[in-house]
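so my prof wants the structure for this chain in the tokens format not the other one, which i didnt know existed until like an hour ago. anyway here's the sequence
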Amino acid sequence: MKKVVLIGDSIRLGYEATVKTQLGGLAEIWSPTDNCQHTVNILVNFYTWIQAQQPDILHINAGGWDVRNVIRGQPGNIVPLDHYRANVDRLLALTARHTRAKIIWGTITPVDIPANFNHHAATGHPGRHEGDIEQYNATAIEVARRHGVFINDLYSVVLSAGKSTMLCPDGVHMTDAGYIRLGTAVSSMIRPLL
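here's what i got, hopefully its the right format
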């Protein structure tokens, strides 16, 4: 039986149950119990989460943390765009060099930025800025294509269904139905590669 590894942040944590249900009889599905957060954290944990697992198929969905601002209401991402580009490039190159995996890159899902900012007013959560997700997605797609990696456009999955029907009130996470839709999109990308 082939091994599928799912890497990603809380969005991945939300859809992985659907993937396990839909593909569980066809493949072993493994994912970290942790929220993988940003690309720096994935690189830090590369050996444990990717290399040591030796997946046949690797689905990476990373960037939602990278685009977060450092200071509430001020531009300036946790991982600047040029560093994100380098991190994605390095992550894909390391995976190609140290595993036999077919790699799928899942794009960052859309955020309702005003809703997210307002939802976290009491906590001081820094939020994100308009246009950043689109820029980071375009960068990751460019790098992934250069590496010959499959693209899973999860951003478009959410947009086509409608952000208002997919997103929770916090503006970032999905409803239960939204996670099922994303998990189905992930399963549909993986299934033909098994």
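also thought this was worth mentioning. The chain has a mean pLDDT of 97.
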